């Protein structure tokens, strides 16, 4: 039943995988008990570059990347942060403070993750300055390009655009097999990952960077030390337990989180495409090519965590959906056009189903309250 008075917020909270973690086996395996006298010190390992990183978490991170085959961890420093958002800011600080020229230009190809602009502009730093779209950037001098792949918000596979010898920060939040084929092992100077988007544990606020250059790693740790004096050990312990379970689950197909997650997001994408098709030429969605996934051992498509929904008419799609009590992130915030919105594909089941019904009512107003229009 549709209740049009209920607000649906489709802005990025990744709770779609909660059912998996509520299953009997995982419910028992992922319990974390911490006595009141443990983890009281600021320090984990004083001699490590990242002195607040729990060693068990570092090992769990390396084990999962090895199992998935999505990123090189050899000869790298692991820097843990309060989500990859904080690590992005730390990386901007590190690269710009080590540069002789300031402020460094920060760019990203449109459509870009809207938070990049906010992070680069919020504190009005003299070390760096947001310069917008990488495709139109022609300012001389050093720069930092943000590359998200698969991209948030449109799910495309990205490479650097400027290619003039600048620094590149790679955000691989979604380079996991339930979202996209793992075609090769990424191997770059700075690579960011987040616990939030792997399996939905956004509330733990854990992310990590794989960094080649020790001086960059030290500067990132300096920023994290000043900004938050490290990262919660309780969150690190929980992340360690869950990452280890993710690695173990890869070896038993019936328990594999990535098999489960892939089926979940694939089903949602099929449902959304069905609805968009039913609306004729009202809405648009990107198409994604097939590619061979080394993890699954077969060809598959990309099923992004967000849908880049477009409107064929010149309308403000964010406002149009808001009239249906659906909150999305407008395309203009991503450097693009107002006829696009970013839709979260990882929300609760009911929210997603209600969203599909409300999307249909834009084309078919006779789908009135109380009669579901969408039948997957």
Automatic annotation (TrEMBL):
One example GO MF annotation: carbon-sulfur lyase activity
Record key words, sorted: Pyridoxal phosphate, Signal
InterPro entries, per the entry: Alliinase_C, Ethylene_sulfur-biosynth, PyrdxlP-dep_Trfase, PyrdxlP-dep_Trfase_major, PyrdxlP-dep_Trfase_small
Record domain Alliinase C-terminal: where: 11-362
Gene3D superfamilies: Aspartate Aminotransferase, domain 1 (3.90.1150.10), Type I PLP-dependent aspartate aminotransferase-like (Major domain) (3.40.640.10)
Source organism, top-level taxon: Eukaryota
Signal peptide span: 1-18
GO biological process: amino acid metabolic process
Stated family: Belongs to the alliinase family.
Protein name: Alliinase C-terminal domain-containing protein
Protein source organism: Brassica carinata (Ethiopian mustard)
